[in-house]
Every structure is written in C-alpha cells, then in structure tokens.
Amino acid sequence: MDDVRLSATSYVVLGMIALRGPSTPYELKRAVGHSVGYFWHFPHAQLYSEPDRLAALGLLELVVEETGRRRKTYSLTDAGRTALQDWLASPTHEHFQMRDIAELKLFFNEAGDPANVPALAHDQIKQHEERIAVYEGMVERFGADPHAQPRMITLELGLEMEHAALRFWSALAEGDLEQLRSARRARRP
C-alpha cells in the first residue's frame, strides 16, 4: 500500500462508506451531495469510477447483484479502514484553498465595467444568505442528534466562513471595507 497514492476523492469514498456502511455509487453521490459536497467540490463521475479502483487495491469489497440492474455495492475492508484511519491521523500540511469564482472575478474587476463590482457583491450577498439559511436549517434538524455531533463541527466551520464572506461582500456593497479592516485590527492580540 505504501506505493499506492490515494486522492482526496479516495478518502471521501472510504470515509462515506465508513460512515454509511455498504453503498452503491449512486448512494455515495447522494450522501456526498447532502454532506461534504457543500464544501468539497469534485466531479460526481469520480464517485462511479473511484470505488472500482479502491476495490482493485483491496480497500473496498465489491458485491455485484446477479440479477436485475446488477448494482455494485461496496464495503470497507480492514485494509480500507486502516488506510482511512492512517489518513485521518496524519498531519495536514496543505494550506486552506478557496476556489471562488466571485473572488476571481473581483481580482480581475479593473478589466471590466466598474458597475459589475456592486452587482457581483449583491449577488454574493444573496448567495451567502441562502447558504447560511441552509446550514442553519441543518443545525435545527440535526443539532440535537448525538450521532450527528462529530459532523456538526464541520457545519460550524461552514457557518463561520459563510458569515465572514457575507460580512466582506456586504461591506464591499456598502463601499465600506474600512469597517472590516478596523474590526480585524481590533481583534489582533
């Protein structure tokens, strides 16, 4: 296993099966869409190809229905659980990456129409408010469930990031980025 490289998608598949139990690629796609898909975006087609690769590596066990749709169901092997646990225990040296199209457009804004910036800001305000409402709805639905508590931590991080983005875009729309700078200076030790 030492020479086999596993990607983030590999660990998403292993982790989802560890949390959910035996799963078909379709079930994985749905589970990702309702969980890590909110913050970890990748082509869902990978959820149909990656399990086969992981099964070939001995990290997943594959069972194919003999009749009907011949659905494939994957289960975690002991080697797969060990690989996932080793990855979870290893340090993360990668810096946080934000791949935000709105931020990219903002960076290049001087090459376009100046009126695009306020329009972009207002659109982003709406999007971040909507995402905050989705996340807060999840907190209401699942926040008291003790089985959901380990995953609620990620939701709290998501809420913090959405509120930070909302503060930024709101200040930009109001033409008052200085309020953000002042708040940052006040928080410094």
UniProtKB/TrEMBL annotation:
Stored InterPro entries: Tscrpt_reg_PadR_C, Tscrpt_reg_PadR_N, WH-like_DNA-bd_sf, WH_DNA-bd_sf
Domain Transcription regulator PadR N-terminal, first and last residues per copy: 13-85
SUPFAM superfamilies on file: Winged helix' DNA-binding domain (SSF46785)
One Pfam family here: Vir_act_alpha_C
Start and end residues of each Transcription regulator PadR C-terminal domain: 98-168
PANTHER family on file: TRANSCRIPTION REGULATOR, PADR-LIKE FAMILY (PTHR43252:SF2), TRANSCRIPTIONAL REGULATOR YQJI (PTHR43252)
Protein name: PadR family transcriptional regulator
Species for this entry: Pseudonocardia kunmingensis
Organism lineage: Bacteria, Bacillati, Actinomycetota, Actinomycetes, Pseudonocardiales
